[in-house]
Design brief:
Length: 321
């Protein structure tokens, strides 16, 4: 645990927080607080299109996916395990104040997600077979002219996918099966691996089709049970919010040093777990949204904003309780 804590401090040290928050604030100011001021506009072009069915349209004979499928594919990694594991560890390690900073991370992350997805769509291209090639490594090479940076990102992204990208989710699911139904972890792992192979062997179209069917159902169940928990503990709501804001800044702490430590710990765990639970700022959203058809950079960027909004403001109401 000490080694993992040291690695966490190294990766999510002050410099990382400055980069994430600084870039997010730069985009926020540059886009004139679009995630806040433009809420009616981007909500109408995302949630409104889901209700009208327009978001499910795919190109004729294309090898990409619809806008709604791209969102579901991105949400598949965050709704449920990403929120439960991310928020729970932030709450345990950083205290109630970490939840406040997760909200701050989400607010800034919305515009970061918009920017990285917009760049991903702008610089994507099709290979000889008509499939989209997209992601941060593409706009690093084509937009910035830094091919070496794109290669480095690809390598680090591969390493990350083996841990945060898949290990946490698989471990949580297998552990739950073992605890609930006493299924051996090895057997559960084999089953999940087989199901995963069936999905990914079909390419991005099959991944999108599976996500389009499973994620809305999973999100609905998650939200319903979360709201049930909140309603059953409704009398504790004022105290929970008070604890969150007090812990986020600790004005009552007796010693300034202790206050600084608690605040920095809350911010560090809040921001880092916020990124884990919505992926804004990691660059992976540009990969997941890149194959979307019948879209523009601006439109798909708004879908990325909607995804962060959904995972942070709708899918974690039960965590403080």
């Amino acid at each position: 645990m000490k080694i993992l804590e040291q690695i966490h401090r190294m990766v999510w040290g002050p410099w990382t927080l400055v980069v994430f928050l600084g870039v997010g604030m730069f985009f926020t100011i540059k886009c004139r607080f679009f995630q806040i001021k433009g809420f009616p506009f981007w909500w109408r072009h995302t949630a409104g299109r889901i209700l009208s069915g327009e978001a499910s349209k795919k190109g004729e004979g294309g090898k990409g996916i619809s806008q709604f499928q791209s969102v579901c594919t991105a949400l598949a990694a965050t709704v449920g395990t990403g929120n439960i594991a991310g928020v729970a560890t932030a709450l345990t390690a950083g205290g109630p104040g970490a939840l406040f900073w997760m909200w701050v991370s989400a607010l800034i992350g919305m515009i970061t997600a918009y920017a990285e997805t917009m760049l991903g769509i702008r610089y994507r291209y099709k290979d000889k077979e008509g499939r989209y090639i997209c992601g941060p490594f593409i706009y690093m090479e084509r937009g910035l002219g830094l091919k070496g940076m794109g290669i480095l990102y690809s390598f680090l992204c591969l390493m990350c996918s083996m841990g945060m990208g898949s290990m946490v989710q698989a471990n949580s699911a297998v552990s739950t099966m073992e605890y609930t139904w006493h299924i051996p972890s090895l057997s559960g792992g084999v089953v999940f691996t087989a199901l995963l192979m069936l999905v990914i062997c079909g390419g991005i179209r099959r991944i999108g089709n599976v996500a389009e069917r499973l994620v809305p159902a999973a999100s609905g169940i998650y939200i319903i049970f979360s709201l049930t928990v909140v309603i059953s503990c409704i009398e504790a709501v004022p105290g929970v919010f008070a604890a969150m804001f007090q812990s986020a800044f600790r004005p009552e702490a007796a010693a300034g040093g202790a206050a600084g430590y608690v605040i920095s710990r809350s911010i560090r765990y809040g921001i880092s777990r916020g990124v884990f639970s919505n992926e804004a700022g990691l660059g992976t959203l540009a990969v997941l949204h890149g194959p979307a058809e019948n879209t523009t950079p601006h439109e798909q960027g708004m879908w990325a904003m909607f995804e962060v909004f959904l995972t942070r403001w709708f899918c974690v109401p039960s965590q403080p309780w």
